[in-house]
Design goal:
This protein has about 240 residues and is an alpha+beta fold. The chain has helices at about 1-5, 20-35, 50-60, 80-90, 105-115, 135-145, 160-175, 190-200, 220-230; strands at about 10, 20, 40, 45, 65, 75, 95, 100-105, 120-125, 130, 150, 160, 180, 185, 205, 215. About 40% of the residues lie in helices and about 15% in strands. One of its GO terms (cellular component) is nucleoplasm.
């Protein structure tokens, strides 16, 4: 009858939460005592509730009783299925209170918050550079190891990042997805488009500190500096004159 009356005569001495059943209070006390009386016979992990042990056993048995009605992917936990459904519904219930960006998973929101806090808990043991994401550190380590796990299937050239491979593929596909708004010319890379735009705007962002002449390209500034330094890096193969 306590279910109907709402009576909860069993209070917790630690946090004052109340329960309708003495057995529920006993189970609740494990939160405070840390008691986990249900061990997994396979891996030894322990649980407070028998129900949690039963769910955990699916890791070992491979049992996935919960299936997605949209794509038929299967899950061992009902909560995992519920989270997965956000892929199909587009639901993103975790908003960032600072910028409004929304996320499907609370864990992704927590990672995103490091953008605002500047927190970088993952450091490189080689150069001490720090990163906000563990995945970013893992990718960075390729600089030190020389690992290039992303090969081009057409020419065999390898890249450290999948994004670099995607950019490289435009050489083979001929894709030039960055059009100039002033003329019909198109470019494979946004950086090349930005450089090209200077032809139309007249922008010359690279000044010579000695004579104030300005240049559209840094490479042209470097060549110009030889006028002042007298450097002649290209010798004649026949007579050696530079």
């Amino acid at each position: 009858m306590r279910i109907h009356t709402g009576q909860k005569p069993f209070p917790c001495d630690v946090c004052e939460q109340r329960f309708s059943l003495k057995s529920s209070l006993k189970t609740h006390m494990r939160v405070h005592t840390g008691d986990k009386p249900f061990p997994c016979d396979v891996c030894g992990q322990r649980f407070r509730h028998k129900s949690n042990l039963n769910k955990h056993m699916r890791v070992h048995t491979g049992d996935k009783p919960f299936s997605c009605e949209v794509c038929e992917q299967r899950f061992s936990l009902k909560s995992s299925l519920k989270t997965h459904m956000r892929v199909h519904t587009g639901d993103k219930p975790f908003p960032c209170e600072l910028c409004g960006q929304r996320f499907r998973h609370k864990s992704n929101l927590n990672k995103h918050m490091r953008v605002h806090t500047g927190d970088k808990p993952f450091s490189c043991e080689v150069c001490e550079q720090r990163f906000s994401l563990k995945s970013s550190l893992k990718t960075h380590m390729r600089v030190h190891t020389g690992q290039k796990p992303c090969p081009c299937d057409l020419c065999g050239q390898r890249f450290r990042h999948k994004s670099y491979l995607n950019i490289h593929m435009r050489i083979h596909t001929g894709d030039k997805q960055f059009p100039c708004d002033f003329c019909v010319q198109r470019f494979r890379h946004r950086s090349n488009l930005n450089t090209h735009i200077r032809v139309h705007t007249g922008d010359k962002p690279f000044p010579c500190e000695l004579c104030a002449q300005r240049f559209r390209h840094k490479s042209n500034l470097s060549k110009h500096m030889r006028v002042h330094t007298g450097e002649k890096p290209f010798p004649c193969d026949v007579c050696g004159q530079r």
